Amino acid sequence: MKEELQVFTDLIKNEIENLPLDGHPKELYEPIQYLMSLGGKRLRPLLTLMAHSLYKDDPRVAVKAAVALELFHNFTLMHDDIMDSAPLRRGKATVHKKYNDNIAILSGDVMLVKVYDLLLTVPSDQLKDILLSFNKCAAQVCEGQQLDMNYEGMESVTEKEYLEMIELKTAVLLGFSLELGAILGGADKESRALLKEAGIHMGLGFQLKDDLLDVYADKEKFGKVIGGDIIANKKTFLLIKAIEGAEGKVKEELKNWLTREHFNNEDKVAAVKGIYNGLHIKALTEKKIQDYFKMALEALEQISVAKEKKLTLKSFAQYLINREE
Length: 325
Description:
mainly alpha; Farnesyl Diphosphate Synthase; 2 strands
């Protein structure tokens, strides 16, 4: 399992390092090289290659399409970081901070063009199917980001609304990552649908884990500002459940921190984290994460391929549950 995952990781790394991203003017392409060089988990192309390996033995034929999803993911990050005024990405300065907003916008646009260049390398008989599915997924990611921004200006967001938003913003791309591998591998429609379903459940669990890590992660491992969501009053699963569960003085204290315009960041993070602890929000979130990954694994169980072929994908799902960054 580890050997197969290492093969996939090396293929993806090599493909990314050899992407044609050294065009002119350099001010347009250098930020793309910078962002792609920061690494990251690269789980989307990994999921594509893992799904492809359920049906085919040579991952090299799928690696360009797989890397297209990593490029698309980073394109969304480049633009999202501008919208969020985020200072750090993977422990380094975000593109708009290192360069400027206009460069980050334009470089992101070029990244999206390069995504289609890579997707055009798929077999011609699969191209239309893949592009239609990708375009639907890409639009959903944008819809999710818009909902996320809408929620910033709303007084309250329900758990249902939040889960629908993160399904669009994050989970559908993980679902398409597995679906893409299935299409390239020649999977039947039922297996393709099950893999997409598994990916969406993984994506929901993955984002909830991100919400959790934003508050409870080891700063050295996380690579982003700890408590950033709390400082920004971001309506995460944790905050939504805290608002639902808080009563009396705790409710008043939470409301005070959410409405206060001037505060010390560390004080606010510590206070809100204390409220979360008192309401057992961490355990509640962990349970929700486990539920989603359980549904993902149940979908994988239904796919009609040999059990041993699923081991790498199942092991990777377990890693996502237990990750610390």
